[in-house]
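Hi P.,

Sorry for the delay on this. The queue was packed all week, but I finally got your sequence through. Input first:
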Amino acid sequence: MKKVRLGISVGDINGVGLELIIKSFQDLSLFEYCNPILYCCKNLVSKYAEKAKINLKKINFIQEENQAEENVVNCMHNFKSDYLLNLGTSTKESGLIALQSLKHVSKAALAGKIDCLVTCPINKETVKLHSKDFIGHTEYFENLFHGSSLMLMTSDQMKIAFLTGHIALNKVSKRINVKAIYSKVKTLHKTLQNDFLIKHPKIAVLALNPHAGENGILGFEETETIVPAIKRIKNENIICDGPFPADSFFSKSNLKKYDAILSMYHDQGLIPFKMCSFSSGVNFTSGLEIVRTSPVHGPAFDLSGKNMAEIGSFKQSIIQACLIYKNRTSLNL
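Then the structure:
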């Protein structure tokens, strides 16, 4: 099988994205998985490497994807910027560069010039200055590629998805309904089968309220919505249990018993996930025709230019994107 053509967006140029890319591919074993193509203009990459004192020997600057070479990081410098870097500070200009890189890598994916992609961390606030409707990577790709997206965090310890994503906490309960739970579990079940090759996935669903609502004493979402949704799912011969109280679910035995978890909201799932897997976890946007992953952390402006960024999560994002793409290919999806 040919190597995977992996597109990479640069993220916020003043963050640690470029450091993650350059340092990660110093591990030559990553080139066994893919031919990487970074989308960022040449002078910015060079300026960053100079300021951060990072060696650029393994960067091959190209004009077209078909010029990409093996065993190097190829860089498509098909947009120009005279921006003077301000490492450690997200600016209006760095937000524009992040958006430009994201648009170029997405265009390449839509045109079939790359097979899958990894996105470096951005600052949503500065990207939003140039795209008012921008909420985050997950929503951005859902608008571009066919499917219904599901944010899925993965690691050796657990796989956990989210019924609701980037919304305010006071809006979560209004988004919890039978249709939404049913749809997300179906998407999760499908991705476990097709992307991770788990034939008969076991899925756990978390409760919203403390102690799973205590039969209505602490809330009615469990009895009125979550339980009926699980019953509907089980009628389709999908193994799905719950709702489990979130405060007592994350034991080693439960994590071993279930292949994936559906949490009700962002922090309910991300807090335990990052406690266990911050340095090795991967954010996977499942449910779409394109495979997209990213590290689980942000731009880490406080570390930018210091050559101190932890690369574990980014490296796993590369590996997982390639493996998921190959799994789909093996199933002719």
